[in-house]
Amino acid sequence: MRKSAADRFRHLFNRSLILLRHRHHHHPFPSSSSLSPFSRSRFFSSTPFSMASDSPFPVTAQNINPKVLKCEYAVRGEVVTLAQNLQKDLQANPGSHPFDEILYCNIGNPQSLGQQPITFFREVLALCDHPAILDKSETQGLFSTDAIQRAWQIVDQIPGRATGAYSHSQGVKGLRDTIAAGIEERDGFPANPDDIFMTDGASPAVHNMMQLLIRSENDGILCPIPQYPLYSASIDLHGGFLVPYYLDEATGWGLEIPELKKQLEAAKSKGINVRALVVINPGNPTGQVLGEENQRDIVEFCKQEGLVLLADEVYQENVYVPEKKFHSFKKVSRSMGYGENDITLVSFQSVSKGYHGECGKRGGYMEVTGFSAEVREQIYKVASVNLCSNISGQILASLVMSPPKVGDESYESFNAEKENILESLARRAKTLEDAFNKLEGVTCNKAEGAMYLFPQIRLSQKAIKAAGDANTAPDNFYCKRLLNATGVVVVPGSGFGQVPGTWHFRCTILPPEEKIPAIVTRLTEFHEKFMDEFRD
Amino acid sequence: MRKYAADRFRHLFNRSLLLLRHRHHHNHHPFPYSSSVSSLSPFSRSRFLSSTPFSMASDSPFPVTAQNINPKVLKCEYAVRGEVVTLAQNLQKDLQANPGSHPFDEILYCNIGNPQSLGQQPITFFREVLALCDHPAILDKSETQGLFSTDAIQRAWQIVDQIPGRATGAYSHSQGVKGLRDTIAAGIEERDGFPANPDDIFMTDGASPAVHNMMQLLIRSENDGILCPIPQYPLYSASIALHGGCLVPYYLDEATGWGLEIPELKKQLEAAKSKGINVRALVVINPGNPTGQVLGEANQRDIVEFCKQEGLVLLADEVYQENVYVPEKKFHSFKKVSRSMGYGENDITLVSFQSVSKGYHGECGKRGGYMEVTGFSAEVREQIYKVASVNLCSNISGQILASLVMSPPKVGDESYDSFMAEKENILASLARRAKTLEDAFNKLEGVTCNKAEGAMYLFPQIRLSEKAIKAAEAANATPDNFYCKRLLNATGVVVVPGSGFGQVPGTWHFRCTILPPEEKIPAIVTRLTEFHEKFMDEFRD
């Protein structure tokens, strides 16, 4: 009986998995017409009692939150799982594959690929972790003078001088003061420390805003396509509706206002109440940097339509072309004369990107402006439920927004480390971009910023059919083949969204510079064989 | 026009705020019941709360208002940092700006389990290892030997070697660094005497995200219920509210030292079922917050059996596992209890939450912790992993610290003696503070206080006169909130009203931590005693 019940359960799950895959394959984004709320509810809901006869577990795929099932996150999806399994295989059986290592180009994780941390930042973090050594003479021999000084300053700002204590739920006031000063210096407009909510990276900040704005699946959020899957995942988890707007590949992934208007009207006509616009600048996965005039148009659009502008600006330090500069949306809106009462704007920042790439420290903040005091209280209340973000991440975020200055002992080494990293990133971006553009049937826009290239690959009908036979999206098929042949991990464009009928993949520019030539060679050889194998 | 619109908005908001306050004040059931849900149908609630930016534009300058945000956010409450705390923070600013303006010279925060903010020193070994992992470049320098202990250096080397790329600034596996999970699994095995699988461990930024993840997994609608103890830690009521579920309360028995009685569980479960609630899980907090009790092993076995029979997930909040102050009680994890009863992976679904915030270490700001998930199918486990992967990973320092907590220095290590001295000093001091405060509360007129067997809190009951209750109503506050605000204004001592944690209707409590520095405890006792006598005299019937 137990075996039979387990078998039945497995069958039920496999069937629902096939249904989910099928739906995902053709419509990667939610459409209210494809499955009515009522029938979806019928499909997913069940009681533990009735399920008890079918499964030994009280919790099954049939009775968990359907929003969790709906959520997807490709950056760590199927291809990555395959890569991790291959890595284990390589360790257990060296020489069993035509490559000797996995090269992770799937995720913006610089230090996992050998990028060194910024010395000054790490010195300050270590001293704040163990302030007992601050006044010992041996410390002078291991740490720079200005790192010691900054650590003293930070520890003094923390109530109780305790880096192990919960802070204010928005973050340590003194650290928020430092960040606000950094924002003012960056933008040239005032910043209020009370507008800053420090977070464990940008993800919790995005989740908090989705939780605030989304009431039901009739609430929509305008998101760029291609887009970073955190947004689609968070919208799904909060039961909202993703309203896609396409970036224009032909114009270097430009954001066009007519496209925004078209998609907004289309959503409204379906009864969707669009609440916010997500803009990622510099772009992920597309690597573009918006022009200032374009930003002004976007601000004006949000103002006119009464939308919250959710500005993902975590790549603000990653700009590789001289003709573009990062301008925060807050700076742009203030320079247009729009103040606190004119536009509602949230800016997300993170210590994970930039030249610092401190992903594992989980530091960041959101700067929230243009909300009433009452709504701000609600944002604070939800932040307080989780008490506070991690103090090391808070300290690091304050360092990122206020790094060593001219005259500080660490300034020269800091600046050298920073410039070396950014220049190397620019070179890697250019080398990979050129390599992709040389491949048959592949075009790749320039990486003006961020950490990614998002080339389009034109696949033959034969390849598309082979992918169909393998029950997978064509770009997923290509990426898995690439991985199995070369050990290079990239993410299929279907994980980020793309114009239907086009295929892409996202490749980071982060592998160590000395490995880039090998990646180019392997990828080129693979691509030629793939194109030959599936020539129509 | 702008001014007029703003005024109208303020009026609308104030009115809705009064409605919310009124409902909270008069309803003696601070937790959601389906009966209160039925008092406002989804349709009419939607009508009240939903609006389009266009129509709201004429009433407010903001596209986002209290009327059009997610109603689950409005419903959520979190008293530990609520009204009394806000008042305290304002008083603190006032004291800094105008010294001598109040009858006390400092605010004494007894509202939150935050030991290091009140002077508790961190464990040296843990901090040494964290500092070295933050700046591994100094690991092989000779000067490092003069600042750090040998075994801290050795452990830091070991940890850095376990991290892919040896990079503490990199994202880890979404469940946490495998080597650190191995260390934690070994620590769990040593604690419990039963195997632990590193793949069952999801490392988190403290316990809160773990709890949220489980609520997100289990709650589909307001018809899904979660059994929670009353009094309870507001993270649970807040998380259930934020995920749109129904809190099914079960009362701990104050008369028997906050015991958890199975008949009460059964009664509340049946009551919920009769209202169409599908109860999915049971939350147990052991040692208890805010109540400080430690469950007996026989009681734990009854609870495991109850969950098994009813097909409930057992959500075991075990973050105070290192905080037990009485010799007749010991911490036993629910996993250990269930395994010792013969229940294995396929017999019961159990999630254990642990955190670096509590214990003798009290590293709240490091945001470290994990949940150990057992008894889920592979398919559901994949979903748990997927949601964890959306947020990429928890912070590496917190992960490292969680592994240190579960595998501290051992006999023979250079740091062992100093580590044990630090640990025992902290725990012994906590026990003394608990006893002193408990005795002080029990001496107060009309106050009874159960023993703090564990955790970091005392939860005394205070019997208030009708006159005091009436004065509270006149001040538009619950009686215990009224008492707590009066206490704060008179003494600077911050405690949390019991209504924030739930209590049997008609009873009043407050939660006081045992964490103020030991040398300040006598002053707290004196101030509180004097205040209490005056309060009781002022409001004598």
TrEMBL record, chain A:
SUPFAM superfamilies: PLP-dependent transferases
Residue ranges crossing the lipid bilayer per the database entry: none
Domain of life from the UniProt record: Eukaryota
This protein's record includes keyword Transferase: yes
Name this polypeptide is given: alanine transaminase
Pathway assigned in UniProt: Amino-acid degradation; L-alanine degradation via transaminase pathway; pyruvate from L-alanine: step 1/1; Photosynthesis; C4 acid pathway
Cofactor(s) annotated in UniProt: pyridoxal 5'-phosphate
Annotated coiled-coil segments of the chain: 415-442
Record GO biological process: L-alanine catabolic process
GO molecular function annotations of the record: L-alanine:2-oxoglutarate aminotransferase activity; pyridoxal phosphate binding
Transferase among keywords: yes
Protein EC: 2.6.1.2
UniProtKB/TrEMBL annotation, chain B:
Matching SUPFAM superfamilies: PLP-dependent transferases
Keywords: Aminotransferase, Coiled coil, Pyridoxal phosphate, Transferase
Pfam family, one: Aminotran_1_2
EC number: 2.6.1.2
GO biological process: L-alanine catabolic process
Gene3D superfamilies for this protein: 1.10.287.1970, Aspartate Aminotransferase, domain 1 (3.90.1150.10), Type I PLP-dependent aspartate aminotransferase-like (Major domain) (3.40.640.10)
Domain Aminotransferase class I/classII large, chain residue ranges per copy: 163-527
Coiled-coil annotated residue ranges, if any: 420-447
GO molecular function: L-alanine:2-oxoglutarate aminotransferase activity; pyridoxal phosphate binding
Pathway participation: Photosynthesis; C4 acid pathway; Amino-acid degradation; L-alanine degradation via transaminase pathway; pyruvate from L-alanine: step 1/1
Cofactor(s) demanded: pyridoxal 5'-phosphate
Top-level taxon of origin: Eukaryota
Keyword Transcription included in the entry's annotation: no
Subunit structure: Homodimer.
Family of the protein in this entry: Belongs to the class-I pyridoxal-phosphate-dependent aminotransferase family. Alanine aminotransferase subfamily.
UniProt name for this protein: alanine transaminase
Record organism: Glycine soja
